[in-house]
Write a structure and sequence with these properties.
Blueprint: H1 5-17, E1 28-33, E2 38-44, E3 49-55, H2 67-84, E4 91-93, H3 102-112
Parallel strand pairs: 1-4
Antiparallel strand pairs: 1-2, 2-3
């Protein structure tokens, strides 16, 4: 029986998370993409704490832009918050999504903002 789209993503996500782990020195940048919005957070998996988060939901600077442009804005904003919090290097967790489109735009925006992957 064929897997649904959600089941395929969950399977890919498990495969990715098996190898990716965020530490205090190099936390994990996790991305969630809904049909309308994009969310990103930087997580220290050792403590189980979200250090910094940003999203396009109710974000004034992302309003009026297409989804890819909004993702870039969210990436830059997240990077600025992370640098203020003392985080410069992260491990990128694409969360089962293809590294393409909005996910790639967010990553590029985060790099522009000063994060190293």
């Amino acid at each position: 029986m064929a897997l649904s789209k959600v089941e395929k993503r969950a399977k890919i996500k498990r495969r990715i998370r098996k190898n990716i782990f965020g530490t205090a020195s190099q936390p994990r940048l996790s991305v969630f993409r809904s049909n309308k919005e994009i969310y990103a957070q930087i997580i220290d998996d050792e403590k189980g704490v979200t250090l910094v988060a940003s999203s396009s939901y109710k974000n004034k600077s992302a309003e009026g832009k297409n989804k890819s442009e909004a993702a870039t804005v969210v990436g830059k904003e997240l990077a600025e918050k992370a640098v203020k919090a003392g985080v410069t290097s992260v491990v990128f967790d694409r969360n089962g999504y293809q590294y393409h489109g909005r996910v790639k735009s967010l990553a590029d925006g985060a790099r522009e903002g000063g994060l190293k992957f």
